[in-house]
Structure formats: C-alpha cells, structure tokens
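We now fix the convention by which a protein and its fold are recorded. The integers have meaning only within a learned vocabulary of local backbone shapes. A record is reproduced here so that you can trace the correspondence yourselves:
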Amino acid sequence: MKKSYILGNWKANKTIEEAKEWQVTYMANVPKVSESVEVIVCPAFHHLPLFLEQTQPFALGAQDISMYENGADTGEVTGAMMKGIVRYVMIGHSERRAHFGETNDVVVQKVKRALSLGIIPVVCVSDIKQVAFLHESILNFGESGLLLYEPLSAIGSGVSDSPENTNETAKKIHEIIPSIPILYGGSVTPENVHGFIEQPHLSGVGVGGASLDPMKFSKLVTASSS
C-alpha cells in the first residue's frame, strides 16, 4: 500500500487565539487514519511553538524557509531556526512565486538549504518546466522530498482540476522524476479528496481553505482514508 499525505496549508491566517481554538476542536475530533496516511499541518511561523506544547496527531511543517543561513537578514526565518520544530517545509508555492518574485533558482537554493538540515522539502510546481529545472538542479531529489502539483486555475478558485487530468500530469512528472510522491493542490474538499487519493500517480493532497476549519479538515482526513 502506497503512503499518502494530507497537507494543510493555513497560509497567512489565524491569530494565536484562533489557532488555539482550532487545536482544541481538532484534538476533540481527531480523525482515524490508517498507518499509511501522514497528516501534515503548516501554520504560520508564529503558531509553531503552540503546537509543541503537547503531542500532536500530525506532523508539523513550515510554509517557507530562508535561502540564507543565520545572519544579518532581517525578517528571514532560517532552516536552522526551524530544525527540530518542523519535519516538512513548503517551498516555491505559487503565491510565493507570484507575489514575492521567487524564481526557480531561489526555489532550488531553498530546497538545498532544507535538505542540508534534514527538513523534508515539499516543492510546489505548476508546470512541467519547473519540474525539469528542479530535476536538473538537484541530483536524486526524488529520493529526498515531495512534489505538490498546483495548477494555477484551481488555486483559491473553488473549482478543482479533475482527478483524471491531475493523474495524467502526475504521470508526466514521474517520467522526469520517477517514484517521487506527488500531491495535488487546488480547491480540495472532503467531497472530492478521495478521487485524488485513489489515482495511481498521486500520493496525497495539499489543502488550503478547508484546512482552516478544524471540523472540515478532520472530515477531509477521514474521507482520504475511506
């Protein structure tokens, strides 16, 4: 049985109090999942200490990582700061690329930084060219990280790509980077998640809006295991 991943990305949302409320509600409604499913939650940086106060039924991830080491880079959060706190880190999300000008070169530098610290990178891609650049730039990347495929038309639109179309794209990605786990991201809900999970070339989903509601996220995780 292949391993599946459910990644919740909170993006730039929630105060500390709202994060605490989410945690209390989720802990009271922890979904039952098979051992082959790993749940990952990626809150904002300032939420991370909150989730270290008690054992969580999910792995922690960060939404970004600095391409630099510790030093004189005001506002940056480095990998060394996150080492021992998070197991995963998202890199190259389409919003980072579009709003903050992150190029393929920047993404590769961040991936290398994460790998050097033993943090698993979840690299976000929206087309085959980005996959090819990653493959050419980092030897054996397929053995070290995850890919989150997010078609731009589906992000925040409320309309997901079809599982079948996504699987065809994932198949093409596997022709470039064989065997790497590929997640689909873009308007994933409790109602459509299973359709993606069951596709042969997909190994999970990235969840945005639905992860902000603890009950909805719990239902989505449950649905992914059904």
